[in-house]
Design brief:
Largest sheet: 9 strands, mixed
Radius of gyration: 18 Å
Order of helices and strands: EEHEHEEEHEHEHE
Protein name: GB1/RHD3-type G domain-containing protein
Distance between the termini: 33 Å
GO biological process, one term: protein homooligomerization
Strand content: 15-25%
InterPro entries: G_GB1_RHD3_dom, Guanylate-bd_N, P-loop_NTPase
Family: Belongs to the TRAFAC class dynamin-like GTPase superfamily. GB1/RHD3 GTPase family.
Helix content: 25-40%
CATH architecture: 3-Layer(aba) Sandwich
CATH class: Alpha Beta
CATH superfamily: P-loop containing nucleotide triphosphate hydrolases
Keywords: GTP-binding, Nucleotide-binding
């Protein structure tokens, strides 16, 4: 069967409640029970192209990880995660690919890679509690959480991120799944699309200056909570 997206978390009662589909979740991962796996998740404000970005990443892996895959203007990008233009949200809850893309790591070991899409935050239909729950759940489940932003990293982006990750950390502590000596989360990547460089020198030097500043700020916020923080500018 072809790869497609399935829902593992549904929002209910106008965003006030959510339901995790344990049977679907377990069925997906049962097929790779004895295989190392990675989950690439994306989260951020609604209507910022998160689903389309995941489709691009999937296209890259499914076409052999060649740097030439995007040069073919006639290539059809698979619509695995549904997306469309407009102002109304498309993704609701959390969706994940029903089966993995098998890749090899640097040592040659096979790894099962899943992609996870999340409902956009800050729309007029979802409460703050709902946004926190979605971000927290996807961050806890993922190997790498992509924080999808447009333009630049604003102070409120970091404030919201702190609220959401505190929510997730509290959930872990309540369930006693976290060891005091380990990070409750794995990787966080800031993806800045349509980067606005007004306060930075153009080119590689300005890019590296921004990365150093933002990484230092975020790393200080989440010391001992995240294994890795990175920034990508598009």
């Amino acid at each position: 069967a072809d790869i497609h997206a399935v829902s593992i978390l549904e929002m209910q009662n106008k965003g006030e409640e959510f339901k995790l589909k344990f049977d679907v979740f377990e069925g997906i991962f049962d097929q790779v029970r004895n295989t190392p796996l990675a989950i690439i998740s994306i989260a951020g404000p609604f209507r910022k192209g998160k689903s389309f970005m995941l489709n691009l990443l999937l296209h890259y892996l499914m076409e052999g990880q060649s740097s030439d895959v995007y040069k073919d203007k006639k290539a059809q990008i698979r619509n695995i995660f549904n997306w469309r233009g407009g102002v109304e949200r498309t993704t609701v809850g959390i969706e994940i690919t029903n089966k993995p893309i098998m890749v090899k790591d640097k040592s040659g070991k096979r790894v099962a890679v899943f992609f996870m899409d999340t409902q956009g935050m800050f729309d007029h239909k979802t409460t703050g509690k709902g946004c926190s729950a979605i971000f927290a759940m996807s961050t806890l489940l993922s190997s790498m959480q992509i924080y999808n932003l447009s333009g630049h990293i604003q102070e409120d982006h970091l404030q919201y991120l702190e609220i959401f990750t505190n929510y997730a950390r509290y959930a872990v502590e309540q369930k006693q799944h976290a060891n005091a000596s380990t990070c409750p989360f794995q990787g966080l990547m800031f993806l800045l699309r349509n980067w606005e460089m007004a306060d930075y020198q153009f080119g590689q030097e300005g890019r590296m200056q921004l990365i150093r500043e933002k990484i230092e700020i975020v790393s200080s916020f989440y010391k001992n909570q995240l294994e890795k923080v990175s920034v990508i500018l598009k």
